[in-house]
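SEVERITY: medium
COMPONENT: batch folding queue
REPORTER: lab tech (J.R.)

DESCRIPTION
The queue accepted two submissions in a row. Attaching both inputs and their returned structure tokens so the on-call engineer can compare them side by side.

ATTACHMENT 1
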Amino acid sequence: YQRRVRDPRPTRHDSARVMTGVLANLLTPILLVAAGLISQPVLSTVLVLAAVYSWLSSNTVSHPTPWRGPKRPADPDISRLERDLEARYHALFPEPTGDNGDWRESATRLSKLLKADYLELSALNSRKFFAAHRVLARCREGALGIRLTVHYNLFAGTINGLGSEAQRDWLTERHARGELGCFMLTECSAGVLSGLVVHTTCTWDPEKLKLILHTPDMEQHGKKWISQGLAAKWGICIARLVLGLVDYGPHAFLVDMEAEGVTRSNMGPKTSFNALDNALVCFNQVELEASALLSKFCSVDQAGKYSFTGAKPPNFLVVAQRLLSGRICISDAAVTYFGTVLDEAEKYTLSRSVWVDNSRQMPLRQLPYMSQMFERFRAGHELYTLFIQDLQDQYISACQQGGELPRELVTLIASAKIEAVEFGINSLHLLRRNVGAFGLMKDSPFGSTNEILLCCRFAEGDSRVLQQMVVRDLLKQHRSLLGMGRLLLRMGSDLVLGLVSRETSDYLMRNTRDKLLLRLVWHMMKSGKHPHAQVDQWLSAGDLVYDLAKCHAHQLIFHNVDQICGSQFTNQADMFKRSVLAMQDCEMCHQY
């Protein structure tokens, strides 16, 4: 499909669309007649389904995609929220802190925001919460933005979601004092690149009647790259709860970061964002009260007995649900940050004149290749923004309903985190490459500060890990005979559709995804049933997994873009889709 989507602009004429619709209408009765004449039931059924598909395509190919989902109500409060938050922030801090300053100064700034009630704790599952992250991204306060999401989303959000009423009251008191918190999950041998494995334990001591938090191997299993780990007074530690001989799996514990046995060290100087402290945290037989376990869903009494509400103990998805909202914040911040760079670059190209012949000049922005580039980036930026804001509404609604988030929403959030950040990284690279020496200037929007997008790529789950998660879920749906049958039937219908109608951007991506999925299913079928053999076969799939993940994520995003935009933005949506497809032609886009 790379060859067929080099030009991301929709260039098909309406007359051609009408002609393909007429051809599809002619083919429908032919397929139905053929189905009636063939005696083989399986082939006859396939022809009937192809006829239905052809008829449906004939009624959509010559018209814009209609609205098929509930329209998200227009909310003018979003812009007002952002204006108010930005005004309050600049009133508190007229001058920017910079991302390479002293981390203590940056931590003090966040503490001041807490004391000023810049973002109240009651707003954790609201549009205001997400708007606050966009404001800091727009102000280019990358380090402070990470601090904000660590304290509000991961630390306070986890206590708010998993803590008892007494623990939530405690949080309110400490928050008002400006005391900072951190979130300790990743370990040395199990970080964002390798997926989640928790070795840190919290074991009940029947003699002391206390929980003992311990790092079994200080070098291998310490909590690593803990943002705000040096500045935090308190922390949420994810550790395995062990009572007697029973391991109840990962649970969340509230820890005093200044307690005896807690050691913290700086991860060292970074190429950028030294205004954010990242710590290695280890625990040496740290004593905790039983009340340190966040106890909304489970608790340990003074006798060391474990109890929980509901039919089963809380799983990790419940314990770490704030990682999902964090992924939405990161996606939103990445797209917002890229928007500020795009604005500044466009302002420069409008003011920069170039000679087009011996007697005429024109602004660099008006050159056709430059104009097309900005149009593509604008379309992508605006539609990713709409998609992520719609995702935020879905998340807020799911949180209000309580319980675990639907798996479909978890996959959508992962897709947004993977592709929105990748869009920002790749688009910024192409933008910088096309503005000439301006991309090297100190006062340009380019340089080391752009590395915030790299931080977004591996924070809250590296893109590679999330891509594997997305593909595993997709593979589970198609490994059975019934799943394989659905896949083959869909591919057959798409083949007929490709012969009778134009190759839309949706068709191209769906067709490519299904081909990759079929290859992966076949590849995994050769592994046998032994778990080690299946893991080895999965690893040997290599780039096939990541290519499939990218196609599937784009397919999900495309579908939601259609739902959000409606017919009035069809051209803009199609431009965005085709630009995504066209960018696959860039060699750098395949280097995950």
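ATTACHMENT 2
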Amino acid sequence: MPEPYAQQNADIHKPTDIYSLVQCIRFTFKIRKSELFGIFTAANDVIEDDMHLQRLPDGDFIVVKPDGASPIRYPMARTIKFPPHPKAYTSGQFNYVEKEGKKPYAYAIAELIDNSLWGTRNNDSRIIELRIAIEPTGKSYLAVLDNGSGMSTKTVLEWATLALSPEDRDRPPASDQEQNTSQFLNSRISKFGVGSKQAGYFIGRSIRMVTKKQHHPVVNQLEIDMDELEERAKRKQEVYEDTVISRPVGEWDKAEMDNQFLKGLCEFEKEHASFTITLISKLNLKYLLYDDSPNDSEAIKRAGLSLLRKLAHTYYFYLHGPDTAMQHLAPPTSNRLTAGLGASSSSSFVPVNMSIACYKMSGNEIVAELVNEEIESDRLNYEAKMIANSCASFAFKAEVAGRGTVAGILRYFPYNGVSETVPDSRADEAEYISDEETETDQEPSESAQQRNGKKKSKGKEKRTPSASRAKGTGRKELTNGDALAAADGGPVSRSSNSNGSQEEANAEVLDSEDMKLFECFYQGRLVPFTEVKKISFIKPTANNLPQLRRLRGSLFFDDSFQINREKLEFTDDVAAALMNEKNLRY
């Protein structure tokens, strides 16, 4: 019995009519005119006229079967090649390891979440889950799951191709409406086509992409193992080649279904009409736990809470919406400043429902659920404190000549008669973890095990802002020598330099480590290692310098500003751009 042309794969451009498709297939697979064949979709539906052809989604695959061949049998494997795009050799250096002292693990995970933000951008309900399972003596896993639009075979190939940017994939540019979204919360964060791969191989050694588009009958799955790629290179074999598996929903490898963590991912797959699961295995635990042992449940919990804190800060406005930035907002006192962060999008903006779960495993069994939290429930991150503690704020927007738009918020934090209320970002993580009650090494209840693979209930109790404040506000106790003033009843102290001018003393304070005036966001997402200490409309003087140290704010940059490939910092000198009055228009 003749079979499909199973071992022959080819990329063809979708023609406009069925006749052209037939001729293209005959030419590509060298099929004689006397040979009859059928053309079928992945669901085994026949493609027999122009109408059927036009219904076929771009990027989908078709199956060509000789006349009389048996139906398609799943799973079906197709070999794909994904040689690096030429930009891979020219687009900069991978630098997560260079940031090791600043613990960049959360920001590597953020690269995966950025993709999920794009995938869920059109959803009425946006679900993104981070799950981590640590098995001290065996395989450990990290997975990012979303209910986004999923990927076709073509899109999976584009994902696998290193340095293939969104522009190279023919992604349309942002519309005016997207660019005018308040704080640029348009989910267009992915930029270079390298982030999820480089971040993924910083996190672990193997990446598996599992995805399905809505109304598509099969799941597409591709796993790229770095150890295998390196072994092929040593043997002088084809390196950038692997197999995309197309299979029915929920049909994972039987051996994997013995693993409780992987079984939970399979359950997520069954629950959503479209989805993407990025599963990383062979985790590099050094960067997650650092010097702690993977046997230490306390260490795993601390790592999970650290990720919770950083991700809650990184995606604060995607989690809570643009209106949260406008709390305590007051009009500007200068007519040179334009109030507002861009067009209001609160009516159409859909906040992201993001969660994190960390498990300890023994063999294939989950033995402890150490963290299971909605990320938006964190009310102690730096951004939340900024909004909650400030007594007055105003918004502004500036056009940088030859570059783009910067929106911003500036907030004032008063002395309350006892302590300063300026949030201290450096104390956040240690404070949060020490405040948490630790309950580890408990046998998970049946309901806890069932939750692995299901969305947590909306009725989950959350911290209230008042409770969060009582727990810790990040306020700094005054010490001798603080250059804090005056106007709102705080202790008076003059910053001066006995060996120089008052201007030199002003500059010294403005350049000091604790003078973190603005944190920076790119397309609404935190850029963690870029800070701006000065801006053109704030002029330090001997009289106002103490109060300046009670100011903090946020700057929101659109995608016309350049960031590095890992989105850890801007490559543009944004601080200098905001100090050059000649190039600014407020």
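NOTES FROM REPORTER
The radius of gyration is 27 Å.
No errors were logged for either attachment.
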